[in-house]
Specification:
Elements (H helix, E strand, L loop, with lengths): L1 H9 L4 E3 H8 L6 H13 L3 E3 L15 E4 L1 H18 L7 H4 L3 H21 L6 E2 H9 L4 H4 L2 H7 L8 E2 L6 E4 L8 E7 L2 H7 L10 E4 L4 H5 L3 H4 L5 E7 L4 H11 L4 E3 L1 H8 L4 E2 L8 H8 L4 H12 L2 E2 L7 H10 L7
Parallel strand pairs: 4-5, 7-8, 7-9, 9-10
Antiparallel strand pairs: 1-3, 2-3, 6-8, 11-12
Length: 340
């Protein structure tokens, strides 16, 4: 039975006893005999392996009292299931993600994938972009699915978000433009986390090689950055630099942003901070190992060691460590083009 295989694929342990099996599958069977016949079928299929030391039940049909779940066999079953859906679904729905990840994600996504499949087959791909809540309601009958219930992540997993012409619902991106650079074929853009830094740098924008200065608003930039192409529809090769607080929260913001757009660290600013005296008081922030390791890679070994010691001791550098004149001097005087 497909439901039993799916339940076993999601079961967190490698072994399972007869009582747990009965509890897990109680909704599927109205008698012990029907339940036992299905368990024996799973035995014969190599999905459940009897643990001989535990013995078998005395009831007939007799099943083992304890089984080892053969995850490798279940994985093959899962892949076979994916292949069946690959044939059934519209060819634009890319299922590659699910071959490499926990089957639990597949089972959570499947009801929505079926609705998406029906939507595409019925309507085709839209020509015009509309706001996320409107498209969300069209596809699954829930206007909040894309924006608040991880529908966007699902659509990205199957490589459909852009094809479905969804306008993200997020705060507008706030930025200043350097009119001298707007026609250039290669353009650089600086994102800064805090308002004070934005205001301090703004007067210098025309003395720099940057096309825009973008105000990040802390975590707000993670969603607002989606609006860049619509708000700045300039055809060019765009390169983004980021400067935020040197603390665990600031590093996490940068790392989340890099998952949406390639975002280099604005190293001249960060290195200038490391030459100053750090502040204390961020030892309460949660560590995010993946984000910190990615952040450290931008620095040399000595700087990496300094940063690790800094964070472990609860110290940090706010962007305000650098005063307005220092910020402007670094922005105007650094060789940014050489960093691309």
């Amino acid at each position: 039975m497909k439901e039993m295989k799916e339940a076993l694929a999601l079961y967190p342990k490698k072994t399972i006893d007869i009582n747990t099996l009965q509890e897990l599958f109680s909704a599927f069977f109205d008698s012990y005999e029907a339940f036992a016949e299905e368990v024996l079928a799973l035995e014969n299929a190599g999905i459940l392996l009897m643990m001989k030391s535990k013995g078998r039940s005395t009831r007939q049909p007799s099943i083992a009292l304890h089984y080892r779940i053969q995850s490798a066999t279940l994985k093959k079953v899962h892949h076979h299931l994916l292949q069946q859906y690959r044939i059934q679904f519209h060819s634009a729905i890319n299922l590659d993600y699910y071959y490499q990840h926990d089957p639990k994600q597949w089972h959570e996504d499947l009801p929505y994938l079926q609705q998406i499949d029906q939507y595409i087959k019925r309507h085709g791909f839209p020509i015009e972009a509309i706001p996320a809540p409107e498209r969300s309601y069209e596809i699954v009958g829930d206007e909040k699915w894309i924006t608040e219930k991880k529908g966007k992540e699902l659509l990205e997993r199957v490589q459909l978000f852009n094809k479905l012409q969804v306008i993200p619902v997020s705060e507008p991106l706030q930025f200043a433009i350097n009119p001298d650079k707007i026609q250039h074929s290669m353009q650089m853009h600086l994102v800064v986390e805090n308002k004070t830094t934005y205001q301090g740098l703004l007067p210098s924008i025309k003395q720099t090689s940057f096309a825009t200065l973008i105000y990040g608003r802390g975590k707000g930039i993670i969603q607002s950055m989606e609006q860049f192409d619509r708000q700045y529809p300039v055809t060019a090769s765009h390169h983004f630099f980021y400067f935020g607080d040197i603390d665990r929260e600031g590093i996490a913001i940068w790392h989340s942003l890099t998952k949406k757009v390639e975002m280099q660290l604005a190293l001249p600013f960060y290195r200038a901070c490391l030459e100053r005296q750090p502040a204390q008081g961020k030892d309460y922030q949660r560590q995010r190992l993946e984000a910190e390791e990615a952040f450290f890679q931008g620095f040399n070994k000595a700087e990496q060691s300094q940063l690790k010691d800094l964070l472990e001791a609860g110290y940090y550098y706010p962007q305000e460590t650098l005063k307005t004149k220092e910020l402007q001097k670094i922005w105007e005087g650094s060789h940014w083009n050489d960093m691309i």
